[in-house]
C-alpha cells in the first residue's frame, strides 16, 4: 500500500506541472482579451508608454517563460519573487490584496457548501437506488427511475431560480442576504446553507440513483448472495453487509470524483444565494480578468481533483478485500 501511494504521489508531480502550464497558457496566450486593455480603457490603448508601465507594475512584462517561472516560484531560487512553490498565489491585480488571504476567508465557506451538497448527493440516491433494485420492474422502480432521469436532465441553477422566484411570489419568501458564519449564528448559518446545498446535491442524485440500482441488481444475482440466503442470514445482513458493500466500488468512484466538481460547481449557487465563497470570488475575477485569482483558484480545483482520485483508489482495498496494490 505504501509503495502504491508513493508511486501515485510521484506521478502527480508531472501532472501538476502540466496543469500549471495549461492554466498559464490559456489565460496569458489563448485568451482573446487582456487585463491591460480592460484597465486602461479605450482611450489608453493607443498610449504605448502607459501600457508598458502598467505591464511592468503588474508583473506582466517580459518573456512568457519568465512570467511563468515567476508565477510558480522557480525564480525564487535565484532571488526572484516567490510563487506557488512557496505557497504564494500572488496579489489581486485590482484590489492589491493577497489571493491566499482572500482564499483563507472564503475557502471554508465553499468547502462546507460543497460537502453539504455531497452529503445530500449520497444520502438521497443510495437508499433510493437500493429500494428501486429491490422493487425491480414494479411501480416504485419505474417512478424512481423517472425521477432520476428528471433530476439528471434539469439544471440545478434552474431549480434554484425557480425556488427563489416562486417562493417570493407564493410565500413572500427570499433567501437570507446577510451571511452569518457558523460561529456567529449557527441557526442562521444552517438556514443559509440548507437550501443551496440541497439543490446542489439533487442533480448528481439522478445519475447515482440509476448507478446504485444497476450495481445492486448485478450483485444480487451473484452466487455468494444466494449462498448467504441459503445459510439463513437475514435479509438486512445480506443486503447491507454483502451486497451493498460490493456494489459501492463504482459508486465511490463517482462520488469521489464528483466532490471537486461539486465544490467547483458552487460558483453559480454562491452567486444566486449571495454566499461569500470562492465561487463569487472567481466570478468577479473572471469579470475583471484578474489573472492571479483565476490561476490560483483553478490550480486549487485541479489539485483537489487529483487528491480525490488518489483517495478513491486507496478506498478500494477497504471496500473489497480482494483488491490488493502491488
Description:
This protein is mostly helical and 326 residues long. It has two domains: 2-86, no CATH class; 100-319, MetI-like (MetI-like fold, Orthogonal Bundle), CATH 1.10.3720. It has helices at 2-28, 35-44, 48-58, 64-72, 99-123, 125-134, 139-153, 156-170, 186-220, 223-230, 235-264, 266-272, 278-288, 291-319.
Percent helix, as a range, is: over 70%
Write down how many β-strands occur, each being a DSSP E stretch of 2 or more residues.
0
Radius of gyration, in Å, reads: 24 Å
> Looking at the structure, what is the overall shape?
globular
User: What is the C-level CATH assignment of the largest domain?
Assistant: Mainly Alpha
Mean pLDDT: 80
Beta content comes to under 5%
The CATH topology of the largest domain turns out to be MetI-like fold
Low-pLDDT ranges: none
Total helices: the number is: 14
Tally of structural domains: 2
Write the element-wise H/E pattern from the N-terminal end onward.
Answer: HHHHHHHHHHHHHH
Give the N-terminus to C-terminus distance in angstroms. 7 Å
Oligomer: single chain
How is the main sheet built?
none
CATH architectural type of the largest domain: Orthogonal Bundle
Structural class by secondary-structure content: mainly alpha
CATH superfamily of the largest domain: MetI-like
Amino acid at each position: 500500500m505504501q509503495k502504491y501511494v508513493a508511486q501515485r504521489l510521484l506521478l502527480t508531480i508531472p501532472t501538476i506541472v502540466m496543469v500549471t502550464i495549461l492554466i498559464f497558457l490559456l489565460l496569458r496566450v489563448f485568451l482573446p482579451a487582456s487585463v491591460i486593455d480592460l484597465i486602461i480603457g479605450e482611450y489608453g490603448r493607443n498610449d504605448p508608454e502607459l501600457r508598458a508601465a502598467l505591464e511592468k507594475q503588474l508583473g506582466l512584462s517580459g518573456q512568457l517563460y519568465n512570467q511563468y517561472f515567476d508565477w510558480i516560484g522557480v525564480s525564487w531560487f535565484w532571488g526572484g519573487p516567490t510563487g506557488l512553490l512557496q505557497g504564494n498565489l500572488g496579489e489581486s491585480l485590482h484590489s492589491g490584496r493577497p489571493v491566499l488571504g482572500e482564499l483563507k476567508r472564503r475557502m471554508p465557506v465553499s468547502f462546507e457548501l460543497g460537502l453539504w451538497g455531497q452529503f445530500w448527493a449520497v444520502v438521497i440516491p443510495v437508499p433510493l437506488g437500493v429500494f428501486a433494485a429491490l422493487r425491480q420492474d414494479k411501480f416504485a422502480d419505474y417512478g424512481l427511475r423517472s425521477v432520476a432521469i428528471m433530476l439528471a436532465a434539469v439544471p440545478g441553477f434552474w431549480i434554484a431560480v425557480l425556488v427563489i422566484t416562486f417562493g417570493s411570489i407564493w410565500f413572500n419568501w427570499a433567501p437570507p442576504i446577510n451571511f452569518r458564519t457558523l460561529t456567529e449564528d449557527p441557526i442562521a448559518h444552517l438556514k443559509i446553507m440548507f437550501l443551496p446545498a440541497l439543490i446542489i446535491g439533487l442533480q448528481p442524485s439522478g445519475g447515482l440513483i440509476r448507478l446504485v440500482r444497476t450495481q445492486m441488481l448485478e450483485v444480487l444475482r451473484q452466487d455468494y448472495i444466494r449462498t448467504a440466503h441459503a445459510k439463513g442470514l437475514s435479509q438486512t445482513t445480506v443486503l447491507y453487509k454483502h451486497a451493498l458493500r460490493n456494489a459501492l466500488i463504482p459508486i465511490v468512484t463517482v462520488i469521489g470524483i464528483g466532490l471537486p466538481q461539486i465544490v467547483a460547481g458552487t460558483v453559480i449557487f454562491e452567486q444566486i444565494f449571495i454566499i461569500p465563497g470562492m465561487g463569487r470570488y472567481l466570478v468577479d475575477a473572471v469579470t475583471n480578468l484578474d489573472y492571479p485569482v483565476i490561476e490560483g483558484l483553478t490550480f486549487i480545483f485541479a489539485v483537489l481533483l487529483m487528491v480525490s482520485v488518489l483517495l478513491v483508489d486507496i478506498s478500494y482495498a477497504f471496500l473489497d478485500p480482494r483488491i490488493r496494490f502491488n
